[in-house]
């Protein structure tokens, strides 16, 4: 193995010796990428969190390996994006083959001026390990309890009483809010009797993560009907540490045990990478997948995030990446509700926004599955027709679907948005995450998203110094009960007292910005309202709309 | 040379996945022979809508092309 799994020591909590159950505002079940993201986001907002993990280590095997641009941006706000980027393999191109024939090549991020690439590949255990490191830096707010298994939930209207098993026996604790980040086989979901709704698929896929030196570029390769192995499709992805992800579609009837035997795996690996190759086998797994979700992500004081709430096929990398978006969506809402600055109905918007996102992800991943694993002769015929036309005729290329890779959901119908009252150019919409762009700051070249630090932010564009009356309005917003951080962006350099400016013109272009353009951004960096001119009254209205006040 | 290539081969769908999904869903619950029937009717409807024989001839040629290509190889 290229990786030593750390063991984290169980430590007795004072809660286990308390006379009556100790109450905590937030308990998160599950130390995966999603639970960790949420815990860190809450900790940075000074919300104390108890994190329960049944195991004393992180997940085995590489599992999720593709982390999308938005995930990296979220992680950067939480203080770990660059570390992920530095360790990960950056990629943005994909090649699609039909048999041995290359038919199509795509570029996921064809424009400049972004801090993070479209994707990195990185084993999930690194994501978790870096998250744990970050959580430990925030131990004033994060109480990480290893070998603490959630075994019982007694839900109520104002919280839940939890039973937690440890190596030294079980104890109880109370929480205002329980977050179920406990994965696809969620104990929380099962014990509350919540059913998944959606489809399951029969096809089986064999994953082989192998370690070998191979002289190949970091390009995602996908074969429909490969000739080098008897699989309906095959996928190759580069990971750090000379690890490669190979994925073979072995059909509904394949014998999983037999397929996982070393000699059988090796035959497929050598078929793809060459007879001379002699890799170490890191992680072998056979899986089937589902496209489904629970109906409501909120059940009174229990909130579901990530795989416990929704599952998708792996094509498109929409599992972990959408879970991270769940976490960033929930963190600020939970904080405002806990501080009694917003009503509990704000958390219903978490359900509305993220179940909409789950439906989008399920739709994409189901459509990819229909293309990759057609379920009828006619479906296969259309699929092969598209592939046979695509090499010579470009109209067919957009129909090829080897996985539509994760992009963040635009919550365009969210009740938290204030609808545009003016017309705007470009792709940015209320409900969309703010787009990154290079900026010049006092400290040198920087990135716009790095200046949006987890609070409501008012982005104001100007080409002159800010007059005193406007500065007073900015101060009022800053001192509001829900503070709004003003960020003045100079459209050109050399404006007195303007510390950030649009050095390359990307910001003005991406935000369709002119003098006076004003954006209200949520703590999760999503656009919630925008105007062509500043008006304190409408900004306050939009802030109230965005917080259910 | 566009005057001898009347068939538009540029991508035209805003939502290619939505189109493809509708095409595949049209065949839900149909047997193979029923699917062929449906496809034949669909082609006739679209052909009449296009109405231009030159366009249709070009499309028919391109649709056969991969097979004609294959046959040439097979007979070598």
State the helicity of chain B in percent bands. Answer: 55-70%
The averaged pLDDT of chain A comes out at 95
Q: Note the main sheet of chain A.
A: 8 strands, mixed
* Number of domain units of chain A: 3
CATH superfamily of the largest domain in chain A: FAD/NAD(P)-binding domain
Shape descriptor of chain A reads: globular
Q: How are the SSEs ordered, and which strands pair?
A:
The complex is a heterodimer of chains A (549) and B (76).
Chain A: E1 22-29, H1 33-44, E2 49-52, E3 66-68, H2 69-77, H3 81-87, E4 89-91, E5 93-98, E6 101-107, E7 119-121, H4 124-137, E8 142-145, E9 149-156, E10 159-166, E11 169-180, H5 187-191, E12 196-200, E13 205-211, E14 220-224, E15 233-239, E16 243-249, H6 256-259, H7 262-273, E17 280-287, E18 290-294, E19 298-299, E20 302-304, E21 310-311, H8 320-338, H9 345-372, H10 377-390, E22 438-441, E23 444-447, E24 456-462, H11 468-478, E25 484-490, E26 500-501, H12 506-510, E27 518-521, E28 527-531, H13 536-546
Parallel strand pairs in A: 1-2, 1-11, 2-8, 5-14, 11-20, 24-25, 25-26
Antiparallel strand pairs in A: 3-7, 4-7, 5-6, 9-10, 10-11, 12-18, 13-16, 13-17, 14-15, 15-16, 18-21, 19-20, 22-23, 24-27, 27-28
Helix pairs in contact in A: 1-4, 1-8, 2-3, 8-9
Chain B: H1 16-25, H2 32-50, H3 53-75
């Amino acid at each position: 193995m290229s990786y030593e799994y750390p063991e984290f020591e169980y430590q007795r909590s004072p809660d286990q010796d308390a006379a009556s159950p100790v109450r905590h505002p937030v308990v998160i079940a599950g130390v995966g990428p999603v639970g960790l993201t949420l815990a860190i986001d809450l900790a940075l907002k000074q919300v104390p969190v108890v994190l329960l993990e049944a195991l004393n280590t992180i997940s085995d095997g590489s599992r999720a390996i593709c982390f999308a641009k938005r995930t990296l941006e979220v992680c950067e706000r939480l203080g770990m994006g660059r570390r992920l980027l530095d360790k990960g393999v950056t990629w943005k191109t994909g090649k699609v083959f039909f048999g041995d024939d290359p038919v199509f090549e795509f570029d996921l991020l064809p424009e400049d001026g972004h801090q993070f690439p479209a994707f990195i590949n990185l084993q999930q255990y690194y994501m978790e390990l870096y998250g744990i490191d970050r959580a430990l830096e925030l131990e004033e707010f994060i109480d990480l309890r290893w070998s603490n298994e959630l075994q019982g939930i007694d839900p109520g209207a104002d919280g839940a009483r939890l039973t937690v098993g440890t190596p030294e026996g079980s104890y109880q604790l109370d929480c205002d809010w329980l977050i179920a980040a406990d994965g696809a086989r969620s104990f929380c979901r099962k014990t509350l009797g919540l059913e998944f709704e959606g489809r399951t698929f029969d096809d089986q896929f064999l994953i082989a993560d192998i370690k070998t030196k191979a002289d190949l570029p970091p390009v995602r390769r996908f074969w429909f009907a490969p000739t080098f192995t008897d699989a309906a499709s095959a996928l190759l992805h580069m990971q750090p540490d000379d690890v490669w992800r190979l994925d073979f579609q072995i059909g509904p009837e394949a014998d999983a045990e037999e397929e996982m035997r070393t000699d059988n795996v090796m035959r497929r690996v050598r078929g793809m990478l060459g007879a001379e190759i002699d890799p170490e086998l890191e992680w072998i797994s056979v899986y089937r997948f589902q496209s489904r979700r629970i109906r409501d992500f909120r059940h009174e004081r229990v909130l579901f995030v990530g795989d416990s709430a929704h599952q998708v096929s792996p094509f498109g990398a929409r599992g972990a990446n959408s879970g991270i978006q769940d976490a960033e969506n929930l963190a600020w809402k939970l904080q405002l509700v806990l501080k009694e600055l917003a009503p509990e109905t704000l958390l219903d918007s978490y359900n509305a926004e993220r179940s909409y996102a789950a439906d989008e992800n399920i739709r994409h991943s189901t459509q990819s599955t229909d293309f990759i694993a057609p379920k009828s002769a006619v479906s296969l015929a259309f699929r092969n027709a598209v592939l046979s036309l695509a090499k010579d005729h470009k109209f067919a290329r957009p129909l090829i679907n080897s996985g539509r890779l994760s992009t963040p959901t635009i919550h365009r119908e969210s009740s938290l948005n204030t609808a545009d009252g003016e017309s705007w150019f470009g792709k940015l919409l209320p409900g969309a995450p703010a787009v990154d762009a290079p900026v010049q700051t006092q400290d040198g070249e920087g990135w716009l998203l790095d200046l949006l630090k987890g609070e409501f932010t008012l982005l104001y564009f100007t080409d002159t110094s800010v007059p005193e009356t406007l500065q007073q309005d900015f101060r009022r917003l800053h001192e509001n009960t829900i503070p709004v951080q003003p960020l003045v962006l100079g459209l050109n350099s050399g404006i007195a007292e303007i510390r950030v400016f649009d050095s390359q013109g990307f910001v003005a272009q991406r935000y369709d910005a002119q003098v006076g353009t004003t954006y209200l951004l949520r703590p999760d960096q999503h656009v919630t309202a925008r105007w062509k001119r500043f008006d304190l009254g409408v900004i306050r209205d939009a802030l109230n709309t965005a917080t259910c006040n | 040379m566009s005057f001898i290539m009347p068939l538009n081969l540029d991508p035209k769908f805003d939502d290619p996945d939505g189109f493809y999904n509708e095409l595949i869903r049209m065949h839900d619950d149909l047997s193979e022979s029923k699917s062929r029937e449906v496809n034949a009717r669909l082609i006739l409807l679209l052909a009449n809508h296009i109405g231009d024989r030159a366009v249709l001839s070009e499309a028919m040629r391109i649709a056969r092309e991969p097979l004609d290509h294959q046959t040439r190889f097979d007979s070598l």
